[in-house]
Specification:
two-stranded antiparallel sheet, 460 residues, globular, 5 strands, 2 domains, 24 helices, mainly alpha
């Protein structure tokens, strides 16, 4: 009996650590201030609005699709994102307040969208599959978000393994190729949302993800965080892999991307506003050419003449606008040129395809007035755009007027294109092999034009 009392006594219950003690340990372990870790860790819990943000990355901005594939449930006062909240990797990261895994919360639904568009499936198993991969990558291998950026192939391996384990309908090597294309685009969005584990951005995201905020993107834009160019790039990518309609490039979004590139290089704001539209013109035509390689067109064996006509009209409008602006400047000096000054016979075309060029003359004139861009550079930049658009107009004209390059669009393809693009594709298309010859010529002129514009960005 005595022995029983000696060896059978109650063990002292281990004291649980306080929240402050856990934060203090995290501060020492991860080298970030406790208050920063606290705000970052909130994103493991307060992410109800995440599906509402991610829907903007969907080609049709379909919230229900995003909700289904992430296992999200609208509870009336909260959105429960089960594939993240119930995941072991998230529980582990939350337990130690690990700031290195917070970005996995943001990355998760973008990977889910890639899997969904690859497999044409809309089931919650997709979100579970992504978390299963993160359970291994972060939970077992202790790999962080930064490791994921450096070791993308390793993360892709686990995503594919878990897709197979969960019996998702995939084509293994095709999915591998698509993940290699899509992950860098997703990383760009996540890094812009939460740069350098910023406390301020974490607080902003927590506010944007509140249930009461119906569109987090609006609040983020109010705070100066514009991820629309990156979202547009991701939408284009998903449309391609999902076999959806080819998405035409949008000039203003391309211009924003070019502005950001120049800003990152430290180019003065006056120069950015003046020259980014010129670089955007080059990018616009590059992306218009790339869109011709869409799987829909490859399967059809050609591109509708109507698509090429749109490119030609854009080129003609920009050519006419550049010539008009150049002539006004030659006579009156560099000044803002207004749209009502456009000759009547060209106004309708220019208003539809090149009205922004007249807005840009204000920025060019202002940059020149301040001495940010020399007069020679202003004229050379405009001349470069004029020469490029003239060549594209000439080449596309030859292409659509060459009978040997054309063939009729089969009726079944015409019907499918009408449904897909909600536009009449016309009766003829340009054969893919002939298109390739002309595209190479246009690309050569694009490659020549960009360095001319860049050369004058910093020249005074």
């Amino acid at each position: 009996m005595i022995g029983m009392f000696i060896f059978g006594g109650k063990k002292e219950k281990k004291r649980e650590k306080s929240y402050e003690e856990i934060l203090k340990e995290a501060e020492e372990r991860f080298g970030l201030p406790a208050d920063t870790i606290k705000e970052l860790a909130h994103l493991y819990v307060f992410n109800a609005g995440l599906p509402r943000l991610v829907r903007h990355a969907h080609p049709e901005k379909d919230l229900k699709h995003v909700m289904r594939i992430t296992g999200s449930v609208d509870q009336g006062d909260d959105i429960y994102v089960s594939s993240i909240i119930d995941a072991k990797w998230r529980e582990k990261a939350m337990g130690i307040k690990d700031p290195r895994a917070v970005k996995f919360v943001l990355l998760h639904p973008f990977i889910a969208l890639i899997l969904s568009h690859h497999s044409s499936a809309e089931i919650s198993t997709i979100g579970k599959t992504v978390s299963d991969a993160l359970n291994v990558f972060y939970g077992q291998l202790k790999k962080t978000y930064e490791d994921a950026k450096k070791e993308q192939d390793k993360l892709i391996d686990y995503i594919i393994r878990m897709a197979e384990f969960n019996r998702l309908p995939i084509v293994k090597e095709k999915l591998r190729e698509q993940l290699r294309q899509g992950l860098p685009k997703a990383f760009k969005i996540v890094d812009k949302l939460l740069p350098d584990n910023s406390k301020e951005h974490a607080i902003l995201l927590e506010s944007a993800f509140r249930y009461s905020v119906k569109d987090p993107l609006v609040l983020l834009k109010q705070a100066g965080i514009d991820i629309e160019p990156e979202l547009e790039e991701f939408r284009q990518f998903l449309a391609e892999i999902g076999g959806k309609k080819p998405l035409a490039p949008k000039f203003k979004q391309i211009q924003k991307q070019e502005e950001e590139k120049l800003r990152a290089k430290g180019v003065p704001e006056d120069v950015i506003k003046a020259t980014a539209p010129r670089l955007a013109t080059v990018r616009y035509f590059e992306e218009a050419l790339n869109a011709m390689d869409h799987e829909v067109y490859r399967n059809m064996g050609g591109v509708p003449v109507e698509y090429v006509k749109k490119i030609r009209n854009m080129a003609l409008a920009k050519k006419l606008a550049a010539e008009h602006i150049f002539n006004v400047w030659g006579k009156e000096g560099i000044r803002p040129v207004l749209l009502p000054e456009v000759p009547e016979q060209h106004r309708k075309l220019i208003e539809e395809f090149a009205r922004w060029m007249y807005e840009d003359t204000k920025h060019l004139a202002e940059a020149h007035r301040k001495g940010a861009i020399a007069e020679e550079s202003v004229f050379n930049i405009m001349t470069a755009e004029m020469a490029l658009t003239d060549k594209i107009y000439e080449i596309t004209g030859k292409l659509i007027s060459d009978p040997s390059a054309l063939r009729e669009i089969p009726e079944e393809h015409r019907t499918a294109l009408k449904i897909l693009t909600k536009k009449d594709p016309g009766t003829h298309m340009i054969k893919m092999d002939r298109l390739g010859e002309y595209k190479e010529t246009i690309k050569m002129h694009l490659d020549k034009t960009r360095p001319i514009i860049v050369k004058h960005v910093e020249k005074k």
